[in-house]
Design brief:
This protein has about 190 residues and is an alpha+beta fold. The chain contains 6 helices and 8 strands; from the N terminus they run βααββββββαβααα. The protein has 2 domains: about 100 residues; about 60 residues. Helix content is about 45%, strand content about 20%. α1 crosses α4 and α2 crosses α4. It is globular.
Length: about 190
């Protein structure tokens, strides 16, 4: 298992895209990277419905107004027919038909837990590369004074995030199983 990617490693990789620099807290490059880090990380998380950043919560159906969890960046699914989001509240106007035996409202959402922990998932190298290039692109204007470089780095970051989202979706939808396993383990009697 690879070591987890902490923010200082990401900072060093982003600054390496701009030349031979190293992250030093308090330096001009360090201040620029520190400034852009939270924004870039949240933008990367909002790029898609990452399976590893998706959480599910069950809420009581007897209530029409529910607080959205503190770590919610974006609501992905609400198990109600009609709802709206008002500020940090989920207001259900119509629940609809209940599934057999369920008395809870299911809500899937994109969590910012990764952004809060400031440690990137080591199982998604294209996501990490996307964050590195987005961060380098944002810092390029200040540190390299090159709008063309900034645009190229941000485009590269978005391409890596697209690739990461594609592989994340493929892996989530995968049903890789050996078809003979069930046949061999079943009895004909």
């Amino acid at each position: 298992m690879m070591p987890q990617m902490d923010k200082v490693t990401v900072f060093n990789q982003a600054l390496a895209q701009l030349g031979d620099r190293e992250y030093v807290k308090g330096s001009p490059a360090g201040r620029t990277v520190d400034l852009w880090w939270p924004t870039v990380l949240q933008e990367a998380l909002l790029f898609g419905a990452w399976t590893w950043a998706t959480k599910r919560v069950e809420m009581e159906r007897s209530v029409m107004r529910h607080p959205i969890p503190d770590d919610c960046l974006r609501v992905l699914y609400v198990g109600a027919d009609l709802f709206r989001i008002e500020g940090r509240d989920l207001v259900v106007e119509r629940y609809g038909k209940r599934a057999a035996g369920t008395d809870k409202l299911v809500v899937d959402y994109l969590s910012d837990e990764v952004a809060r922990s400031e440690v990137l998932p080591d199982h998604s190298p294209f996501f990490i590369k996307g964050v590195v290039f987005l961060l380098a692109g944002r810092c390029a204007l200040k540190l390299a004074s090159s709008p063309q470089l900034a645009a190229a780095l941000e485009a590269q970051g978005e391409a890596f995030l697209s690739k990461a989202l594609y592989w994340d979706t493929c892996q989530h939808a995968s049903n890789d199983q050996d078809p003979l396993t069930e046949i061999l383990n079943s009895s004909i009697f």
